[in-house]
Amino acid sequence: MSDASSTTCSCAVHCVAMMHVDSSYRFSEAHVYGLVAEPDNPHDPHAIKVVCTNQDDRHVGYLGSEFARHVKPILEHGNLISITYSAKKSNAYRHILHLEYESPALVAERLRVATLERQLAESIRFSKEPSSVASPKRKRRRVTFSNRPPEIIEHEGSSIDDEEGGE
After folding, report:
1. Residue 16 belongs to a domain with what CATH number?
2. How far apart are CA 122 and CA 13, in angstroms?
3. How confident is the model at residue 22 (pLDDT cuts 50, 70, 90)?
4. The whole model's pTM is what?
5. Cβ 62 vs Cβ 49: under 8 Å
6. What does the alpha-carbon distance between residue 56 and residue 64 come to, in Å, rounded to a whole number?
């Protein structure tokens, strides 16, 4: 498996609606944050709430709707590695969170590779032809070489001299 830092992606998202959720909460770079999809939200079926995991999953805000649609597939099919808070770039209305994740496509590809490796290991262990790994069978043709020079074929009405500018 390759180095995790070379296969991860990152992006910055906004946490909004803090005053409507928990006005007493103060964001901190020392806190650990998590994201929870909220498909039953009456205002937005793509809503993702931000929780402070080291305070019993305290609900502290929502991802901005412009980000939630893109982050939801990561939560459902990808691998969210870390969430960090950036105090320097945040203000009272928008708190900036940096997400580090593995894309859903990469996670799916790793699962396919693991499945194929498992099938191949089973087929080797039981000494049988693997069912999903194709083994092409090619026909071999006999190639012979002759010592005769190639024949020169002339077409009617033309000769080699005509093509070279001769008579």
Report:
1. 3.30.70.2330
2. 44
3. confident
4. 0.60
5. yes
6. 23
* One domain, residues 93 and 114: no
**157 assigned to some structural domain:** no
Number of domains making up the chain: 2
Instruction: Summarize pLDDT for 107-143 with one digit per residue, the tens.
Output: 888 888 888 888 888 877 776 555 555 555 655 555 5
Average pLDDT, the chain: 78
The neighbour count for residue 98, using CB atoms within 10 Å, is 14
For tokens 């070489």, name the residue: 145
Q: Which of 102, 125, 151 is the endpoint of a domain?
A: 102
Same domain, 127 and 81: no
Amino acid symbol at 3: D
**Residue labelled with tokens 């994740």:** 101
Per-residue pLDDT tens for 31-68?
A: 999 999 999 999 888 999 999 998 889 999 999 989 99
